Amino acid sequence: MTIQVGDSIPACKLKTMGAEGPVDITTAEIFDGKKVVLFAVPGAFTPGCSMTHLPGYVVNADKIKAAGVDTIVCMAVNDAFVMGAWGKAQNADEILMLADGNGELTKALGLELDGSGFGLGTRSQRFAMIVEDGKVTQLNVEPGPGVDVSSAETIMQSL
Fold it and tell me: What is the pLDDT of residues 82-93, one digit of tens each?
């Protein structure tokens, strides 16, 4: 079942890239007591994600944070090494690049995507959400290919 507005983010441990290598981070550390914009992509370095989705959040990070957002999170079912490298390649210094390597949070949210037809295995659907103190207040899941309802520009209208 897909997470809904009003639901709490499930407890889960993920990874981010630190100076010494992958670092564990929990959903509680990310979301508790904070206003967070989380957007998820099917895969780091893929065309739509690299040309449109992540860049939209990179260029609008200051505006998003000025609207009261504590943290902007980009999540993909990739490992911390890939997410760290992608963040550097995209100059995403203001964005927490979150690796859901085993897809645990993606599955718990009910937002998996079967990418096996493209050789990608199980990935995340493209979506964006606003989370306040661990509760989802806005959820925008893309109905098909492309970046529209989960774009930075669309999310900014809801802040």
Answer: 999 999 999 999
For the question of residue 74 being annotated catalytic, the response is: no
Number of H helices, E strands in the chain: 6, 9
From the candidate CATH numbers 3.40.640.10, 3.30.460.10, 3.40.30.10, 3.90.1150.200, the one assigned to the domain spanning 7-157 = 3.40.30.10
Q: How far apart are CA 105 and CA 99, in angstroms?
A: 10
Q: How far is Cα 145 from Cα 9, in angstroms, rounded to an integer?
A: 25
**Cut 0.85: pTM above it:** yes
The residue annotated as part of the active site, out of 36, 37, 44, 49, is 49
Q: Which helix or strand (DSSP H or E) is residue 137 part of?
A: strand 135-141
C-alpha 108, offset from chain centre: 14
Element (H, E) at 24: strand 21-26
Cβ atoms 147, 48 nearer than 8 A? yes
In angstroms, the CA 147 to CA 125 distance is 11
Residue 17's DSSP bridge partners are: 22
Q: What is the pLDDT of residues 143-156, one digit of tens each?
A: 988 899 999 999 99
> Which pLDDT does position 20 carry in this prediction?
94
Q: Tokens representing 24?
A: 């564990």
